[in-house]
Structures are given as C-alpha cells and as structure tokens.
Amino acid sequence: MQQQQSLPLGFVRGEPVLEKPENLYIPPDALELLLDAFSGPMDLLLYLIRREKLDILDLPILAIIRQYMAYVEMMRELKLELAADYLVMAAMLAEIKSRLLLPRPPSDETDEDDPRAELVRRLQEYEIVRQGAYELDQQPQQERDFFVANALAQVQASQAAPVEVGLDELVVALRAVMQQIDVSQHHQVSREVLSTRERMSQILDRLQQTPKLEFTQLFVQQEGRAGAVVSFLAILELNKEGMLRLIQAENFSTIYVHVGYVHEGAATSDGETHEAIADE
Amino acid sequence: MNEQQLKQLVEAAIFAATEAVTVDNLLQGALAGYKLNRPRVRQIIDELMADYSDRGVQLVEVASGYRFQTRAELGPALANMWQERAPKYSAALLETLALIAWRQPITRGEIEAVRGVSVSTNIIRTLQERDWVKVVGHKEVPGRPALYATTKAFLDYFSLQSVADLPALAVTRPELSSDPAAPSAQPDDTDNDGDTRERDADKAILH
C-alpha cells in the first residue's frame, strides 16, 4: 500500500516482494494432520510447488526451500521421527541452491547440468506415480464397489447326505462303551498319563488304514475309563477340527467314524496333555 | 445340444467356478465334450454379457478371465450386508502399488528413490499378502535385492485388464537428458505398455 515503504523482502523472479506471504504460517497443531495428508517429502514438495502455482520445470529453489524448511522446522519442534526423510530432501534442496549460487567455470558453457534437472525429473516421476495412485483408487474396487458372484454347482445332488450325529447319541454311544468297560473291569492302581493329542494321531492313523470304522472300535477295553475318556475327547476334537466325520444311517443306529479332510501333520502337532488317572 | 443349452452351460460354468475362467478353461472343462472352437465360445460369452448388461450381476472380463460380479453402482448398498467396512488403503500403499505397477520389475531401493521415503515393511507385506505383488526375481547387483511385480489378482481386484488401463501409468519414465550417472538411473527398459507380468517375468529372471 505505502509506496515509500522501503526495501522489499526479496525478489521472486525479478518481482519485488513487499509482504510476507500469508500462507507460510501453519499452526503447529495442524502439522500432525498435515503429515498424515502427505505420504512423504516428495508429496510435500509437490504440494508446495502447486500451492504457489509454480512451474516444476522452472523451479525457484529459494522460495521452495524457505517453505520447505518452515515445515521441517516444525517437525523438529514436535520431535517427529518422520522428519529424517524430509531432512534428506531439505539437504538436497540446499545443495541445489548452493550449486546455483556458485559461479560456473567459464569453460562450462553448456547449460545441461542444471542442478535442478535431477530434482525436476524426480518430481515429474513422482507426479506420475501420484496420479497413478489416484486413478487406481478411482477404479471400481473389489470389496468396495463390487463383489464377485458365485453359484453353487449341484454336482452330487443325487446322494443324500448322511444324518448328522447329535450330542445325545454320542453320549448314548459312550455309555454303551462305559458299560462294557465296567463289566470287564479289573482292579488297577497304576497312574497313567494319556495324551489326547497323541490319541488323536493314533485314531487318524487307524483311519488312514481303514477309512471307515465303527465308533466302538476306537476304544480299547484294557485302557479302562480313563482310556475311553481320552479316546472320546480325541474323537470330539478331531471332529471339531474337521478331520473325521461321524455318520450314522438313522437315529440310534451304529455310529461310524469316517476320515474327513486330512491335513498333513495337523494331527501330530504338540498339544496339551490331558492327565487322566486310572481309577483308584 | 442346442443353442440355448450351450449358453446355459457356459453361464453355469462361469458362475460355478471359484475364480475367473478363460475360454481355454471352458474348452478343457465344462465344454470338453463338445466340438467348439474359441471364436464360438467367445461369441456365446458376448451374448451372455449382453443378456446380463442390465442386471444387478454382470458378466465381465478381467485380467485372468471372465467372471460374474455385482454392478459397481450397487457397491455402497451391498456393503451394508457385512459388519466390516471395505478396506481403505493409505496413500503410501497406493503410491507404492502404482509405482510397482508402472516400473515393474522394481526393487525396494528404486521405489524409495522415487517416493523419497523409506518403504515400510508393512506395506510390502500387505501387498504380498493380498497377492497383488510378488517377487519375480532378484536384481544382479550387490545385495541381490528382490524384484517386485504386480499380479493378475491385482488387476482383477482393481477391475483392470492391464496396467495401461490407468492413463497416468501408460507413459514412459521421464528422461533426464543430461546426467546419465544419476544415482537412481536404472537399466531402464521398463516398456510399460502392457500386460502386467508374463513379459516382465521373463526379463526379471536373470540368474
């Protein structure tokens, strides 16, 4: 406004600058938001160039470096670890500026090694990537914009699925096994440790040889109650993990144990040991 | 088998397949018993596409073949069917992905040179877990860094048939006329005009 107001703050491309640009000041609180908004120093640099409506190909390094350093300074105050990558960029800007200031050897007439060239190329490259990322985000995206449609193929429709075995029937079956054991019970005093995981492996092993067994065949009379319980737990566990299937033709008929989907090594994994104490 | 049954069979085969199917998949699979040639199958698919054009589900061609998917406009409404929100990908992840798509096969160091920031391990892991990016070889320089490339699954996910479908990435790398010894200058033969991996894979496996 006042013409006689003295010295300009500086010159930008030959134009005197009298007032400080307003948009240089960023409230510190805004910085964290700001850092989230930028994906890195290149992003910040591109933003600064765009905001000042500067031409990438004709980068006024000084204007950029001033703004850039203002941001970096704030990052430093906030002790943001992220500043490292940004500092590298600042150093690069400073280096370019200093090389521009140095007088060139008179022999070097060619203007091809403008120190800005590499930065300009990187900025152009980054701009492409940024635009690419934007376009990628605009694409119809699975899970966000569309979902893949599938139909179930009724290939085995003719085979009726076997009746699922309910818990009640399992309990009944177990009781029958227990009764058998009670009848042929011997007096035992020894303590035994039976591992359910190990039993699971044994059962799977047997099913490998005979893919279909009667439920009761999986129990060993001699092992007594404890053995029966461990076997039962093992069967339940295997059934839960989908490694065997329990099938019966109709309610209260014989329950058969079938191999399910067998995963290699799944059964031999180390597991907890159920301690069972043979009756005392 | 009449015309209509044939169309039904192709439709059913694509619907029942768990992944996108190619014409060859169809010829070797569901259509194996019938003497059909490729143009014929393609013609049937085109007819099906037309039939579905105004339905909620559409038959589309993606990078790895044909599949049925819901119309993009229905996405926001359909998303309400599930508890979890659609994943939102960060700018850093999308930039990394776009860069790999554009300049593949590319090393981590090259990615960092362009983005000016170190590549977080999380991003690379996420990209690999989603099967969008895979290691296709190792660059024969000290340290033998892994070379990353995008996959067909990536193209499928973003409804692309090729990376060149993204106009921004259809351009070649800006040249630096001077200074051939720039630190980030690579043996730059990335002619990114086309299909995502097959060709690049040939190039990458140097060892």
From TrEMBL, chain A:
<dbReference type="InterPro" id="IPR003768">
    <property type="entry name" value="ScpA"/>
</dbReference>
<keyword id="KW-0963">Cytoplasm</keyword>
<keyword id="KW-0131">Cell cycle</keyword>
<dbReference type="GO" id="GO:0006260">
    <property type="term" value="P:DNA replication"/>
</dbReference>
<protein>
    <recommendedName>
        <fullName>Segregation and condensation protein A</fullName>
    </recommendedName>
</protein>
<dbReference type="GO" id="GO:0005737">
    <property type="term" value="C:cytoplasm"/>
</dbReference>
<keyword id="KW-0159">Chromosome partition</keyword>
<keyword id="KW-0132">Cell division</keyword>
<dbReference type="GO" id="GO:0007059">
    <property type="term" value="P:chromosome segregation"/>
</dbReference>
<comment type="subunit">
    <text>Component of a cohesin-like complex composed of ScpA, ScpB and the Smc homodimer, in which ScpA and ScpB bind to the head domain of Smc. The presence of the three proteins is required for the association of the complex with DNA.</text>
</comment>
<comment type="similarity">
    <text>Belongs to the ScpA family.</text>
</comment>
<dbReference type="GO" id="GO:0051301">
    <property type="term" value="P:cell division"/>
</dbReference>
<comment type="function">
    <text>Participates in chromosomal partition during cell division. May act via the formation of a condensin-like complex containing Smc and ScpB that pull DNA away from mid-cell into both cell halves.</text>
</comment>
<dbReference type="Pfam" id="PF02616">
    <property type="entry name" value="SMC_ScpA"/>
</dbReference>
<dbReference type="InterPro" id="IPR023093">
    <property type="entry name" value="ScpA-like_C"/>
</dbReference>
TrEMBL record, chain B:
<keyword id="KW-0963">Cytoplasm</keyword>
<keyword id="KW-0159">Chromosome partition</keyword>
<dbReference type="InterPro" id="IPR005234">
    <property type="entry name" value="ScpB_csome_segregation"/>
</dbReference>
<dbReference type="GO" id="GO:0051301">
    <property type="term" value="P:cell division"/>
</dbReference>
<dbReference type="GO" id="GO:0051304">
    <property type="term" value="P:chromosome separation"/>
</dbReference>
<keyword id="KW-0131">Cell cycle</keyword>
<feature type="region of interest" description="Disordered">
    <location>
        <begin position="174"/>
        <end position="207"/>
    </location>
</feature>
<feature type="compositionally biased region" description="Basic and acidic residues">
    <location>
        <begin position="194"/>
        <end position="207"/>
    </location>
</feature>
<keyword id="KW-0132">Cell division</keyword>
<dbReference type="InterPro" id="IPR036388">
    <property type="entry name" value="WH-like_DNA-bd_sf"/>
</dbReference>
<dbReference type="Pfam" id="PF04079">
    <property type="entry name" value="SMC_ScpB"/>
</dbReference>
<protein>
    <submittedName>
        <fullName>Condensin subunit ScpB</fullName>
    </submittedName>
</protein>
<dbReference type="InterPro" id="IPR036390">
    <property type="entry name" value="WH_DNA-bd_sf"/>
</dbReference>
